TrEMBL record, chain A:
GO terms for molecular function: acetolactate synthase activity; acetolactate synthase regulator activity. GO terms for biological process: isoleucine biosynthetic process; L-valine biosynthetic process. Dimer of large and small chains. Keywords: Amino-acid biosynthesis, Branched-chain amino acid biosynthesis, Transferase. Belongs to the acetolactate synthase small subunit family. Residues 5-85 form the ACT domain. Its EC number is 2.2.1.6. The lineage of its organism: Bacteria, Pseudomonadati, Bacteroidota, Cytophagia, Cytophagales. This is Acetolactate synthase small subunit.
From TrEMBL, chain B:
It catalyses: 2 pyruvate + H(+) = (2S)-2-acetolactate + CO2. This is Acetolactate synthase. Its EC number is 2.2.1.6. GO terms for cellular component: acetolactate synthase complex.
Length: 172, 560
């Protein structure tokens, strides 16, 4: 089993996310994380899916995703083939604020992005291992809430969805 | 400006739809109202159940190659389509299903007969869409036909809210030629053709397996040309039957759990396996870990997700097999394989002695299903269509029916849907009233859609229904006998008087219990002009052999 990132480029079509996720559900495969956003190309959506599966599974999953009519193209990558980040937010109470907190924030190069009377919100971006490490450290500070995004990723290998779209449809 | 409902009907007419199979109800009534004005341009068939409508559309699509069209109402009308959608998806049958939906402003409110049809049908369709505005109706239908028919065909569904049906809009129909996210065909990789040809040229024991992909690609002539030149033995899958005449010298029989002895056994002795338009279904491969491990595999397949899915290929020839087969035929050398072929013939003789002789030529005891099919072969027309349901009769009819021409095999292969045959036979018959359509069905399965006898009556489709009555859910009973210690748990049926039922539906009907009466009955049926219902009471506890039991390897195919 490996951790993979699948980048899916789709039309902006109602239900497309459902069509993609049922491919995983049907095979009993868990989606570790999923994010959807616009892509560089107008009107084309990009869905980033993280899953821990075998090589055989990732090949089949990617083909099945690409088979969806409104999917333009899907690619899969191993972790070392993508640049990726996840953002995490931590809510810590200000009451009895431990002076050690400042040190932790500096060490991690995290930021306080909101300060209210009762709590502060710390933002930290990195790989899951990093945001997880900060989570463990902040727990003793009476951490109130934690939230982490799915990964956003850019692939290192070159590929062009635009080029794929420009290719004429081949009719036999 | 015309009403959305008229746009629906005129779009279907613009797509040259010949038939609509359907059933009305509240949320689709505007379209039914519109239909009233177009009965000279498009025919509507009122089935007795929506499942009947979709199976009829499937039968029509399978013999015609056109997309079958289904029209039903929201809620229960739409949910009754689900079995047919799943069936058409797994058997790659082009369908365009139109469902009515509650008005757009009621969506999500649990309005009367509101169901999330798009959500429910998503895993059972190649594509689906909900249309909420009149302007979107025609483009959605155009796209639906394009997607249903191109590439690997499949069912699509267009859910149209009631407000869109009654609003007024412009109608100028534009056929859909392409969808930018969907590129169903690819250019055949020339290097792959060269690689495949060199494997084939140096093979000692090459072996071709062909499936329905050949029929869907209209590549029957290309398959024949390839086999004519190479002399390679070729076996058919369930849905591939008919793609090659069984008289062709390369033809060696059928694959799969109840296929022929030699084709299964010798799969594990070939050195190059050439799979054409087939998907290595588990009913064909048996235990994958012991399937054709010795062979190099060449896979000619349109759908990239089928390549390497079950069986790893040495050379993948992705693309339309009509194109790849003709390129391959040019690239291979003319050859023959008499010794290798004789292995098939030897084993065929073993099967004849051990199984076939008895199946086809009973002398005492109850009638065998095979005897009925054997007689049908003697009296049927060359291009007669065989429609079967699911069970023992399906396997026996398939095993013994003499397939001479293409698009003569209509059965529920991938899903194994009992109740498929009767409505599918109706659809197949409507495509051409003059072609013989023979519907072989079991006493269990016929009762799942028996109401469609009414549709046959109303359309006067001259379907020949052959009920092989063993008073059992025979296929399940066979498994109970072989694998569950003969514990016949809920497989015996108390059946009605089928002849009375058939006669109530205006069928000419006849029941045969004695061997001596069978021949004249089959002959009478096939000469009869209108619908005919022949019930044959067969041996209750016959089994279908050969058989590859679940979990076994193809080489463990047993003759008894
Ligand atoms: C809708 C559906 N339900 C259950 C089954 C499981 N099943 C497969 S064959 C079979 C028995 C069919 O009996 P019958 O129609 O009498 O045909 P026979 O095998 O006796 O020829 C059953 C129950 C099925 N294939 N489809
Ligand atoms: Mg039966």
């Amino acid at each position: 089993m490996n951790r993979y990132t699948i980048l899916v480029y789709t039309e902006n079509f109602i239900g497309i996310l459902n069509r993609i996720t049922i491919i995983f559900t049907r095979r009993g495969i868990n989606i570790d994380a999923l994010t959807a956003s616009e892509s560089r190309l107008d009107g084309i959506h990009k869905i980033t899916i993280e899953a821990t599966v075998t090589e055989e599974q990732i090949v089949q999953l990617t083909k099945q995703i690409e088979k969806v009519v409104d999917v333009i193209k899907a690619y899969y990558f191993k972790d070392d083939e993508v640049v990726y980040q996840e953002i995490a937010l931590y809510k810590v109470p200000t009451e009895n604020l431990d002076p050690g907190l400042e040190k932790v924030i500096r060490q991690f190069n995290a930021h306080i992005i909101a300060a209210e009377k009762e709590f502060v919100v710390i933002e930290f971006t990195g790989h899951k291992e990093d945001t997880q490490a900060l989570l463990e450290i902040l727990k003793p500070f009476n951490l109130l809430e934690f939230s982490r995004s799915g990964r956003v990723a850019i692939a290192k290998p070159k590929f062009s969805v635009q080029e794929y779209l420009n290719n004429q449809t081949y009719n036999h | 400006m015309i009403r959305g409902a008229d746009i629906v009907v005129r779009s279907l007419i613009a797509e040259n739809a010949e038939y609509i199979f359907g059933y009305p109800g509240g949320a689709i009534m505007p379209v039914y109202d519109a239909l009233y004005d177009y009965s000279d341009q498009i025919k509507h068939v009122l089935t007795r159940h929506e499942q009947g409508a979709i199976h009829a559309a499937q039968g029509y699509a399978r013999v015609s190659g056109n997309a079958g069209v289904v029209l039903v109402t929201s809620g229960p009308g739409a949910t009754n389509l689900i079995t047919g959608l799943a069936d058409a998806l797994i058997d790659s049958t082009p369908l365009v299903c139109i469902t009515g939906q509650v008005a757009a402003h009621l969506l999500g409110s649990d309005a009367f007969q509101e169901t999330d049809v798009v959500g429910l049908s998503m895993p059972g369709t190649k594509w689906n869409i909900q249309v909420r505005r009149v302007a979107d109706i025609a483009p959605a239908i155009a796209k639906a036909f394009h997607i249903a028919k191109t590439g690997r065909p499949g069912p699509v569904l267009v859910d149209i809210t009631k407000n869109a049906q009654v609003e007024f809009g412009e109608f100028n129909y534009v056929h859909c030629e392409s969808v930018r996210s969907y590129k169903p065909y690819v250019r055949i990789d020339e290097q792959a053709v060269i690689d495949a040809a060199s494997l084939i040229n140096s093979a000692q024991r090459p072996y071709v397996l062909f499936g329905q992909g050949v029929v869907l690609a209209n590549a029957e002539a290309e398959l024949k040309a390839f086999l004519d030149k190479t002399g390679i033995p070729a076996a058919s899958t369930l849905l591939g039957s008919g793609a090659l005449s069984q008289c062709h010298p390369s033809y060696v029989g059928k694959l799969g759990m109840h296929g022929n002895y030699a084709p299964n056994l010798l799969t594990n002795q070939c050195d190059v396996l050439i799979a054409v338009g087939m998907r290595f279904d588990d009913r064909v491969t048996g235990d994958l870990k012991r399937y054709a491990k010795q062979a190099k595999v060449i896979h000619l397949e349109l759908d990239p997700s089928e390549i390497d899915k079950n069986v790893k290929t040495t050379v993948a020839l992705q693309g339309d097999c009509k194109a790849s087969l003709s390129l391959l035929t040019k690239a291979v050398k003319a050859n023959e394989h008499p010794e290798w072929m004789s292995r098939f013939r030897e084993l065929e003789n073993e099967e004849k002695k051990a199984v076939i002789a008895n199946d086809l030529h009973g002398t005492h005891g109850g009638l065998h299903m095979g005897e009925v099919i054997h007689l049908i072969n003697q009296f049927k027309e060359q291009d007669a269509v065989l429609v079967t349901d699911v069970g023992q009769h399906q396997m026996i009819a398939w095993r013994y029916f003499d397939y001479k021409t293409t698009r003569t095999q209509v059965t529920s292969g991938g899903l194994g849907t009992m109740g498929f045959a009767l409505p599918a036979a109706l659809g197949a018959q409507l495509h051409n009233y003059n072609r013989q359509v023979i519907c072989v069905v079991g006493d269990g399965g016929i009762q799942m859609t028996i109401q469609e006898l009414g549709t046959i009556m109303q359309t006067k489709a001259p379907v020949k229904v052959v009920l092989l009555n063993n008073n059992y859910l025979g296929m399940v009973r066979q498994w109970q006998q072989l694998f569950f210690d003969k514990r016949y748990s809920f497989t015996e049926l108390e059946n009605p008087d089928f002849i009375k039922i058939a006669e109530a539906y205006s069928f000419r009907a006849r029941k045969v219990t004695e061997r001596d009466d069978l021949e004249s009955a089959v002959a009478e049926m096939l000469l009869h002009q209108g619908p005919y219902f022949l019930e044959v009471v067969v041996e209750k506890e016959d089994n279908v052999f050969p058989m590859i039991a679940t979990g076994c390897s193809v080489e463990e195919v047993r003759l008894s």
